[in-house]
Structure formats: structure tokens, C-alpha cells
Known about the structure:
- There is one protein chain.
- The chain is α/β, with parallel strands linked by helices.
- 39% of the residues lie in helices and 28% in strands.
- The strands form 2 sheets. Strands 5-4-3-6-7-8 form a 6-stranded mixed β-sheet, sandwiched between helices. It has a two-stranded antiparallel ribbon with strand order 1-2.
- α1 crosses α3.
Amino acid sequence: MSEEREQLRDILRAKSLRTGDFTLSSGKKSSYYLDCRLTTMHPQGALLIARLILDKIREEKIKADAIGGLTLGADPIGAAVAVVSALEETPLNAFIVRKEPKGHGMQRFIEGFDGAPGARVIIVDDVCTTGESILKAADLAEQAGYQVVATFCVVDRQEGGSETIRRKYPLYSLFTATDLL
């Protein structure tokens, strides 16, 4: 395991992983909860996530114009990747996918990126449980005329969502629940 990946795993364990009795957004009961926003919005956590995602994009030779996903889980990740990509002189735009279209102005679902039809995008989320957030964001990106070339999550809970996503898109997880527990 790379030093950066170990550092991020330690931050996720310390800041985002909680044990106890929890009800997930899917309605399922769980003995642990991952609040990855405590890591994705932590300065070192955000930096490490961005570097690891950019490393994987390079390793897999993924060509993309922008990265983003469903608000709120994806927002800090997309922003961090965009900033680090600029610092590394390989700029990648970020975007936000709204849960509902804006009620005025352009009434769009996609904010922050106005790519041409066929623009290649990566969809990202903090945690993958059912895969619903990634798939919804991907569907809205495709409705906007973009081509989804890859998906990423920080942590795959290993509860079936990653398999569902992989039926349609490549999915890269930085960690699985097993890696953190």
C-alpha cells in the first residue's frame, strides 16, 4: 500500500468510521457508519483523495474533461480533484449534479461545467452502498449530453452497489469497507 493510501486509510478510520447501530439512507441496518464528509472536507483527506483519484485516472489512461457527482457527497471530491489537477498541470474541471433542477435561470441539473455534447465525464461519490447516487448522477450527465467514461467512490461498502454500477460503467474504489474495518 502506498504511503498516501495508508495516510488516507488512517484519516478515514479516525474521522469517518463509527461503530454502533445505524440505519443507512438505503434503510438497511448496519453495525458501522461512514461519514466520509469528515474526511473529504478535511484538508489532508481532500488532498489525498484527489491525488489517489488522479493517480488512478493516469494509471487507467482515462481521458476526461470533468469530474463531479450528486450533491452533497461528491462536491468536495470534485473540487479537490479540480484544484490538485490544476496544481499538477493536468486540469480537470469539476461539476455538481443537483438533485432537482434549479428553479430559475437555466434550470439545469449540472452546474459548474458547460461542456460540448459528448464531453467525457467522471462521476464520483464518497460512499457506494446501493450505487443509486452514482447511477442517478451518471444518468443526468448523459441526459445533458455527456459521456460517462468512469465512476469513482472513496469507499465501497460492498453491499451490491459496485456490482450494479459495473454493469454499466467502470468503477474504481479507493477503499472497501473491509479495508477500513
